[in-house]
Amino acid sequence: MNLQADARGPIIRPRVSGDMAECAEVLRAVHLRDSYPVNWPADAESWLAEVESAWVAEIDGRVVGHVAATISDDDARVVTVERLFVAPSVNGRGIGARLLDVATAHGDAELALLAVADNGHHAQRLYRERGWSLRSRTPITWGGSDASSLLWYELRRNVREDPASG
User: Fold this and answer.
1) pLDDT tens digits for the chain (166 residues)?
2) Membrane-spanning residues where (predicted)?
3) pTM of the model
4) Would residue 1 count as lying in a domain?
């Protein structure tokens, strides 16, 4: 899959049910290259669908990226970013950053959180470049030889920021 963005870049839009097969296909390519997710889900489409608020990046009518976000049931000022991935064929074009910004702005939360396995080097670099701070590290046993801990990152937002700018 060798897709080109136009001068405006990819289209970022809400995910719809018709995107699920393509999202799973892109996720498979990411898993084969980066071991994300560390453990391949039994049903990738269902795993992606577990989170209702989700967006995709699209180039030339094809899905090339995905992100989801969940507002905390305990504190509406906290959003958790999940299931962020970008097709390896379009890495380095800022698509992950754009998806991350959309998810972070979801619900006008003051604090955004996310977790990444310690083998997610591309993701960790993106988070640091976007101003996220490492909050904590939790040892895991389910990562096998691929990952030994889960890294929790946070980003504090000024909710008066306009997420559409930038």
Assistant:
1) 334 444 557 999 999 999 999 999 999 999 999 889 988 999 999 999 999 899 999 999 999 999 999 998 777 789 999 999 999 999 889 999 999 999 999 887 899 999 998 888 888 999 999 999 999 998 777 877 778 888 999 999 875 544 454 4
2) none
3) 0.85
4) no
Total domains, the chain: 1
Q: What CATH number does residue 143 fall under?
A: 3.40.630.30
- Residue 23 counted as domain residue: yes
Range of the domain at 20: 11-156
